[in-house]
Every structure is written in structure tokens, then in C-alpha cells.
Design goal:
By secondary structure, this protein is α/β, with parallel strands linked by helices. 28% of the residues lie in helices and 20% in strands. The protein has 15 helices and 18 strands. Strands 1-2-5-6-7-8-9-10 form an eight-stranded parallel barrel. A hairpin with a 2-residue loop joins strand 11 and strand 12. Helix 7 runs parallel beside helix 8, helix 9 packs antiparallel against helix 10 and helix 13 runs parallel beside helix 14. The longest helix is centred in the middle third of the chain and has 16 residues. The mean pLDDT is 96.
């Protein structure tokens, strides 16, 4: 089948925002006397900081200056938890965030800044406060919605932990009743939600745990319905493992590329990873990888999916579900730079987790969801590094959609090219603490290089012919642009 994925995603740099923690502006949807949790206090499981969509609008100039061209917002619909994966109403933006008015204003302002907006779709489960499930709590087997969920017995015990729940909750959590996706009305309800917000101007959906919805044809229909309204809408799934079954061109455009994250941190950090900040194998960027092992992992990723799918993968280093990279590597800034360089030069759409660019630390949830810091607390060199690498990516189409070819992978040195038409860039990474002198065979490249000019980093480059020798400083990476004979 012919595969089509949105071109804008292939050229995008995403920024993931946890709305309760990014920015605050007072607004009329909530009384002014609400006693929010202190912005700078450590985050708690249940506390609200009061961040909102109006605050995001106020920071669009900052994001545009950083080079961000797309936002991924974790859930924004009405809920009774700070992360909002417990949806009460799929048609109402949470009033704490500013309500539907704030989302309309955000979409208008973001699009004026040439920034796309992707929402988080939590369609596997709802919440105890969701109207249809709440009706079951009130009316039991007499509720007209009783077949919308997987009820296993009576009475349903949504809040009495000492009693059997008698219904299926996501991961056994009775706060998250799971939809019965086999029911045609449930299926149609979810499809209409997806269509409604695309019609309102949303640019795509990030889908929460979509692998758990296994009804045949469900995601194929979802794609058809969404793309029928906007063929350029982005559909990206949260799947931590090999996502090949969902990435054949008939379901998702990409997934959150945790497989890339896992390999890249294991290579860039080496033995610097604090295993206390990893909670299960899919979160675990260890054991350390040498360059040849990293090459094999990357080549596997690049062969798993068709090229048009690879270019719309959502690549990341941290997220709301992982410890932040900075804390995971004991504040080793060289690891941050190496991993970010690999992120910004890899095929697919890179995604920066809010605050990573200014050195926001954070351990395992909820600590990884800290509030965005005041400017006085920003790590300015880290921010400048992010801005420079993002700018380089925007300036060179080869780094966005060009072919990826490994030139050398030995010990702690990894060198590859990105090439598109007449443009070629060479990226070199040295994860050793010592400088490395490496001779690189350039003959496999499709064109003969006569010169290499460095546009990032400080390598020493010898005369270039069929080979070149690079002197790479320890724990550094570089980007070089090629000139041809």
C-alpha cells in the first residue's frame, strides 16, 4: 500500500508540555482566591500548581525563538487530577486550564507563530467522574450505559477499596474504568471526539496506550475519520516496544520513540545512568552501549519501518513518564549535549520535554513533572546549545529528511552522514573522556568530498580525500558540512 505521512511533521521540532506545570496566567474561569500548591515546591501526586493554556500563550514567543514548531500537550480535558488522564468530559477543556475559550485562543496564537498543536487522546479508559460511568454508579444495572464499560458483577465499588471493583480498570486501577470498545456506540463516540477537535483546528492526536485497544479495525477507522477531515493531521501512539504492527501506514504516522531514547542514552551516558531512576525495562537506558552496539540498535530502528514512517516518529530523551535525563545521569551535562546532538540529527521529529532545555531536573513521577523554573535558575549554556542545534536542524534539510548512513562505529566513536540531493552533513560523536584520533573512510559515500567545514563542535579535520582524519575532543560531538569536487 502507498504510505502517506504529514510533511510538516518531518520538518518539525516538538516541545512536550505538562500544562499544570509550564506557565500561569490569572484568568476568569477559576476564582482568583484558589490556593494553588506553591509553584516552586516539589510536585505531589495530587496537588495542582495552576498552570494553564493562557500561560502557554504568553510563552509562545519564547518557544518560537527556541525554534519550536509543534507542541504536544498532555491531556487538557476536564478531569479531577493534575495530569488529566482521568477524563470527565471529552468536549470540555478543564476550567483550571482556561476552558474551551483558552484552547481556541491558543490554537489561534500558536498558528500565528507557525506552531502546530497536538492533543493527548485518552481513549482506552475514562474516569469515575465521566458522566456515562457515573450514571452506572447511580443506577447500577438499570443504567442505559452499562454496556459501555466492562462490568463483571454487582455492586460496582468505585471507591470502596476493601471491596471488589466488579469492573475492569486500566492496569487494575478502579479510578480508570476501561471502555468496552466492542460496543458500537463507544466506538462511534470516540471517533466523533477525534473528529470534533480536528474540526476545531487541532493538528493531531497523541494516543495514550493505544496498543490496549485491540478491536479489529478500530485504529484503521480512527485514521480514516481523522484524515478525512485533515489529511495532514498527525497521529502518534504511545507504544514503548517494537511498534511495527501499528506502523504499516494504515494506523499511526509514528510512535513516541522510546526505543531510540533507550539506545541513545545508553550510548551517550555509558555507565553514568543512575538505575534508581529506572522503574521497568522499557524505561531502562542501560546497560551501557559501545558504538558498534549502538549502530546495531539504530540500524534495527531504521529497518523496522518504511522511510515515510521513520520520518514521522516522535523521538525523545525525557517525558512525563520518565525521570528527566539530567537527573538520570547525575547532572552530567556532557551526556545531555551528546544525547541532544544525536536527537537533533536523527530521522524523525525531535521532541524536547519542557524545561530540559534550561536544565530542569526531576526524578521518577511525580518529580519529573516539576514546574518550569524562573529565568534566574536557567542553565543558559544548555539553553544556548539546544537553540543552536535546533537552528542547525532547521537550516539543513538533510538533517530532517536526508538519508542516514553510518561511516564508523568503533569503541566510543560513532560517525554518520545525513545526505539529501547536493547537501551532506557528517556527524561525529566521541563518548570517551579522552580525545580520539580517527581515520574515516569516506569512499562509501555517493559523492566525493573535497572539504569539510565544522558548523558545531571543535574537531580538527585533516586533508579530505577518500579518507579524512578527525581529532575529536573527549565527551564531545560535532557537525560538519561537506563540499564536493
Amino acid at each position: 500500500m502507498q504510505i502517506y505521512t504529514p510533511d510538516w511533521v518531518k520538518n518539525a521540532v516538538f516541545y512536550q508540555i505538562f500544562p499544570d506545570r509550564f506557565a500561569f496566567r490569572p484568568h476568569s474561569s477559576i476564582p482568583s482566591q484558589v490556593n494553588w500548591e506553591s509553584w516552586h515546591a516539589p510536585p505531589t501526586v495530587q496537588g495542582y500548581k495552576g498552570g494553564n493554556l493562557w500561560g502557554i500563550i504568553d510563552r509562545l514567543d519564547y518557544l518560537a525563538d527556541l525554534g519550536i514548531t509543534a507542541l504536544y500537550l498532555t491531556p487538557i480535558f476536564q478531569s479531577a487530577c493534575n495530569h488529566r488522564y482521568h477524563t470527565h468530559d471529552y468536549y470540555q477543556v478543564d476550567p483550571i486550564l482556561g476552558g474551551n475559550e483558552a484552547l481556541t485562543a491558543l490554537l489561534t496564537a500558536a498558528h500565528e507563530h507557525q506552531i502546530k498543536v497536538v492533543l493527548d487522546g485518552v481513549f482506552n479508559h475514562a474516569s469515575r467522574g465521566f458522566f456515562f460511568f457515573n450514571d452506572i454508579l447511580e443506577n447500577g444495572p438499570h443504567s442505559p450505559w452499562v454496556d459501555w464499560f466492562r462490568i463483571e458483577g454487582w455492586p460496582v465499588a468505585a471507591y470502596q477499596g476493601s471491596k471488589p471493583a466488579n469492573y475492569v480498570g486500566w492496569s487494575g486501577n478502579r479510578a480508570l474504568p476501561q471502555f468496552n470498545h466492542d460496543h458500537p456506540d463507544v466506538r462511534e463516540y470516540i471517533m466523533q471526539i477525534a473528529e470534533y477537535w480536528i474540526k476545531q483546528g487541532v493538528d493531531g492526536w497523541r494516543l495514550d496506550v493505544p496498543n490496549e485497544i485491540q478491536v479489529p479495525g478500530f485504529w484503521q477507522e480512527f485514521r480514516d475519520r481523522v484524515k478525512g477531515i485533515n489529511p495532514e493531521a498527525y497521529i502518534v501512539g504511545e507504544i514503548w516496544d517494537n511498534a511495527q504492527p501499528w506502523l504499516q501506514g494504515d494506523q499511526f504516522d509514528g510512535v513516541m520513540n522510546y526505543q531510540f531514547r533507550q539506545a541513545t542514552i545508553a550510548f551517550a551516558a555509558g555507565d553514568r545512568v543512575d538505575v534508581a531512576y529506572t522503574t521497568q525495562p522499557t524505561y531502562a537506558p542501560y546497560p551501557a552501549l559501545e558504538a558498534s552496539e549502538y549502530q546495531q540498535r539504530i540500524q534495527d530502528l531504521l529497518t523496522w519501518h518504511p522511510w515515510d514512517i521513520q520520518l514521522t516518529q516522535l523521538n525523545l530523551l525525557s517525558s512525563h513518564d520518565t525521570a528527566r535525563l539530567l537527573s538520570m545521569v547525575h547532572l552530567d551535562y556532557s551526556t545531555i549535549e551528546l544525547a541532544t546532538l544525536l536527537l537533533l540529527t536523527f530521522p524523525g521529529a525531535p521532541c524536547i520535554y519542557y524545561g530540559d532545555e534550561v536544565g530542569l531536573p526531576g526524578g521518577i513521577d511525580p518529580d519529573c513533572r516539576r514546574s518550569f523554573p524562573e529565568e534566574a535558575d536557567w542553565h543558559l549554556p544548555l539553553q544556548a546549545m539546544h537553540k543552536q542545534l535546533i537552528q542547525i536542524r532547521h537550516q539543513h534539510a538533510a538533517l530532517r529528511t536526508g538519508q542516514y548512513q553510518v561511516l564508523l562505529a568503533t569503541d566510543e566513536t560513532y560517525i554518520f552522514s545525513r545526505s539529501l540531493a547536493e547537501e551532506m552533513l557528517i556527524v561525529a560523536i566521541n563518548t570517551s573522556t579522552e580525545s580520539s584520533s580517527i581515520t574515516v573512510d569516506l569512499s562509501p559515500l555517493p559523492q566525493s568530498i573535497s572539504k569539510l567545514d565544522c558548523i558545531y563542535g571543535t574537531p580538527k579535520i585533516s586533508e579530505v580525500n577518500s579518507t579524512t582524519t578527525l581529532e575529536l575532543p573527549g565527551r564531545q560531538g560535532s557537525i560538519m558540512i561537506a563540499s564536493f569536487e
